[in-house]
Amino acid sequence: MSLLSELRPAKGAEKKSTKRLGRGDASGQGGTSGKGHKGQLARAGGRVRRGFEGGQMPLHRRMPKFGFKSLNPMRYQIVNLKNLDSLDGEVTPETLMQAGLIKGGPVKILGMGQLTKKLSVKAHSFSEKAKQSIEAAGGQIEVLK
After folding, report:
1. Distance CA 84, CA 119 (A)
2. How far apart are CA 129 and CA 109, in angstroms?
3. Nearest CA among 122, 116, 118 for reference residue 95
4. How far apart are CA 29 and CA 26, in angstroms?
5. CB count, 10 Å around CB of 84?
6. pLDDT in the model for residue 88
7. Tens digit of each residue's pLDDT, the chain (145 residues)
8. Residue 109 burial (CB count, 10 A)
9. Whole-angstrom Cα distance, residue 48 to residue 41?
10. What gap in Å lies between CA 123 and CA 144, rounded to an integer?
11. Which of 18, 22, 62, 71 is most enclosed, with most CB atoms within 10 A?
12. Which of 49-78 are b and which e, b meaning 16 or more Cβ less than 10 Å from the residue's Cβ?
């Protein structure tokens, strides 16, 4: 059983006391309330925005503009030749989806790996190496719109 003198509030139940600014010199924060004398930082709302350089042309405006970001970029699902080697006959985006090689969307065939079979491949885009490899194996390519 605890004594009455040992009772304490639960941890986190008490707030820490805040500094009472401008309440006399004895508080340690009297007079100017810890803001110093005059100037922008002593005033209400007296802060400058991020990147402000005192009226000088800011760095981000002095630097040249560069680059471009398309609002509707074409994001291809990538399939390599080594993955196509496990398929037979005609290869279309639908057959690639059924095989679990893509999740959907436009397909691009890249030339990594070897193709050992004659395949008819239909995709939205092909790399040069992929085109050469498919045609060298006796296959055909068709670019979809």
Report:
1. 9
2. 9
3. 122
4. 8
5. 26
6. 85
7. 679 999 999 999 998 888 888 999 888 899 999 899 999 999 999 889 999 999 999 999 999 999 999 999 989 999 999 999 888 889 999 999 999 999 989 999 999 998 888 999 999 999 999 999 999 999 999 999 8
8. 27
9. 9
10. 5
11. 22
12. eeeeeeeeeeeeeeeeeeeeeeeeeeebbe
Distance linking the first and last C-alpha atoms of the chain: 82
CA distance readout (Å), 72 to 67, 85, 105: 15, 32, 14
- H or E element that contains 29: none
Domains of the chain: 77-143 (3.100.10.10)
Distance from C-alpha of 40 to C-alpha of 74, rounded to nearest angstrom: 50
| In contact, 87 and 94? CB cutoff 8 Å | no
Say if residues 136 and 118 touch (Cβ distance below 8 Å): no
Amino acid at 9: P
